Amino acid sequence: xxxxxxxxxxxxxxxxxxxxxxxxxxxxxxxxxxxxxxxxxxxxxxxxxxxxxxxxxxxxxxxxxxxxxxxxxxxxxxxxxxxxxxxxxxxxxxxxxxxxxxxxxxxxxxxxxxxxxxxxxxxxxxxxxxxxxxxxxxxxxxxxxxxxxxxxxxxxxxxxxxxxxxxxxxxxxxxxxxxxxxxxxxxxxxxxxxxxxxxxxxxxxxxxxxxxxxxxxxxxxxxxxxxxxxxxxxxxxxxxxxxxxxxxxxxxxxxxxxxxxxxxxxxxxxxxxxxxxxxxxxxxxxxxxxxxxxxxxx
Amino acid sequence: xxxxxxxxxxxxxxxxxxxxxxxxxxxxxxxxxxxxxxxxxxxxxxxxxxxxxxxxxxxxxxxxxxxxxxxxxxxxxxxxxxxxxxxxxxxxxxxxxxxxxxxxxxxxxxxxxxxxxxxxxxxxxxxxxxxxxxxxxxxxxxxxxxxxxxxxxxxxxxxxxxxxxxxxxxxxxxxxxxxxxxxxxxxxxxxxxxxxxxxxxxxxxxxxxxxxxxxxxxxxxxxxxxxxxxxxx
Lengths: 298, 233
What we know:
By secondary structure, chain A is mostly helical. In chain A, about 70% of the residues lie in helices and about 0% in strands. Chain B is of the alpha/beta class.
């Protein structure tokens, strides 16, 4: 459950730059950085005995978000001059840089990572993390929902649809592209900070190219034209492996099918992406179509 | 109001505009005519700063446009109706108009202006909730002009409003351009349809291969032998 909610929030962080038409795969990079911020702060800087206080976690999330936001502006100003697939490549490079750095630098714990990140809750499965994760997702979703309805959102959509037209009505595309990129980064950083506590351990495997593709798949399968799409896509795809494993455990299934369901997750994942792309090119959640009034013939 | 001096624009190694001079005075319609690829659109784009000039002065109301970004130019009251209309196809007519008022924040006046556009362009009022991409070419052109007017421009840059439209629709568009002019909007009109443009405008310039070769009152240009032979057939 917690993983689903966190994945959905991450998907929103990729959706934000996409609102202005910028395909950025940098989300896992900022997610990883956010996680390291929380992991380092809570294990090496702050020492508390007993359950870790929740306000401190919130503080770490805000700090991680702010740090990622500043970093995103610094990266975004030059990187967002690139378009389409070139921006995607540049952001993949960013994710790789973060990964390699965290493997080599001392204070991130190298390949081993950081262990024993303190826990605020006592239960083993960490379901209480929903208390933080769910409000975060709801806030993020409400924020995006509002954003789509005010001038800024309108500017972002205009840039996505036609940058020259946006220029012509007085929108500064660079500013808004960087803004949407930075908002996505802040969200990813905050999610990372929370995830570090939830997972108890943090290492370089958290932010990889695979993760970039996974988050992209959330958005593509869910639908990239409405903020509900990424949320639904992330939840479905995160729950899917568990669901498949459960089905495989029922027994009475032929051995090959059970094995496929249990171990062939990646194959099923791939199949699902192909099927969805063919049948739901706009994603499972398609945008609402404006009402078309019947046109009277004059 | 707008003064262009020795404007030169290159695309890579190709010279699109060479030392062009042009002036638009407040309240005028000035037209710039010429063949395909003569550099007409380039001149408008240089004014709205979508392309960067290689040399020359662009002065608008005493401000040096060359130092501004495209969005700042719009803030100064220059609205560009780009070639090919460039309406946001997946947005409704109403949303496109709202976007035109992006540089303004006076909500109530914006609503009133939108109402006014619907009066000037009744076809748009009928289709206000339709996606702009579903409109006919003429309606899209009207929408592009209305969208530009939503920023309350002092100077309107019109790039080929007749492009790809049926003659009857073109006539309608030019009637509206004339009406805007009477309401006091200054217009710089780029056109391939030289006859219609010269009939509508106060003064005209003829652009050939990036250079201004002729200029003068529109009524004189329309009688000019060279113009007649080259553009009016």
